[in-house]
Amino acid sequence: MQHSRSTTWAAILMVAVLVLAGCAPRAGGGVFTTPGAEKLAVDLPALLIDFDDAGQPSVGNVPVAQLASQFAPGMLDSLVLSPDLVQYMVESNIQHLQISNSPQGLILQVNGRSLPSLRWDGQILEDTAGAIDLLGAELGAGVALVEKLLPLIAHVGIGVIARFPVAEGVAQIPLYSTEDPEAALATKQIQDDFLATVDTTPTITVPVFYDAQGNWRVGDLTDAEWINLTGLAVFDSFRMQPTAVNQLMQQGISQLSISTDASGIHVRINGHSLPYIGWADGELNNVLDLAEQMGLWNTLADRNMNTGEIVAMIEQLLPIVQTSEVTITAHFPDMGLAAAP
What we know:
Layout: H1 2-21, E1 23-24, E2 42-43, E3 46-51, E4 57-59, E5 62-63, H2 64-71, H3 83-91, E6 96-102, E7 105-110, E8 113-115, E9 117-119, H4 122-134, H5 136-139, H6 142-149, E10 156-157, E11 159-163, H7 181-198, E12 203-210, E13 216-218, E14 221-222, H8 223-230, H9 242-250, E15 255-261, E16 264-269, E17 272-273, E18 276-278, H10 283-293, H11 307-323, E19 325-331, H12 335-339
Helix pairs in contact: 7-11, 10-11
């Protein structure tokens, strides 16, 4: 028995050493510090996973398949990628992807450039706990555990980097990037120039009221009248099943809101804010550049618009989208009122 335990701990120690040997600097690292030793603070480098041309992953020059056979047979099989996907990454010069946790939210990077991702602060995490209370029936016994774990998110720093082969003659892109502040400033300047042109921030507020049967109205217009007026059949999909409306009512959910502003896309449940998708520092511009690099705009181009025209049009729309304050709020009937004759 003692020998078996020693072997197990030796295997765990071996895996830990190999994993730490395959680590790299993490975006957002070095900021998880708390005064005193009584508060939780976990700040680890990023785990670096290398993929070869066949899509086989390795950590610290040790194939993941070998690690899995020793420690977790079958659990890491999903890490294997198809050779075609790896080849696409190489041809697009996508050298590495990173996901990292920070006190302000997740950091998603491609080739060291940030993409829109989840953002939060202490107040938002507290509000999220309030929203989880409303969803308690869906989460069951896990509600209490989730509520305890939420405050810890801002004190735990971990990350993973997936690295792909680099084509011959192509320069290596550093794994770690502190981002270019000039790019964020340029994005902010474009938005300021747009606001200076229109004088006021574009604002749109749309309250949508549902009844217990899942029909909706905006102002005095019913959903059928709205569809006839606009000629857009897509609004028909906004109708909900009565069972879905009833479930929301049972949980005491009276409002679901989605809004956009210069900082990102926000979702609220009964006024409780959830982690939002942030785009304040030029992340959408990085998405545009990445899409062009990967040839995605070519799939949208046709005889009427070429790739350059599509990119130019989107770049003109970006400051409008990012600076506009748009709020759509779905209101659901109160359980007591819905039950009244």
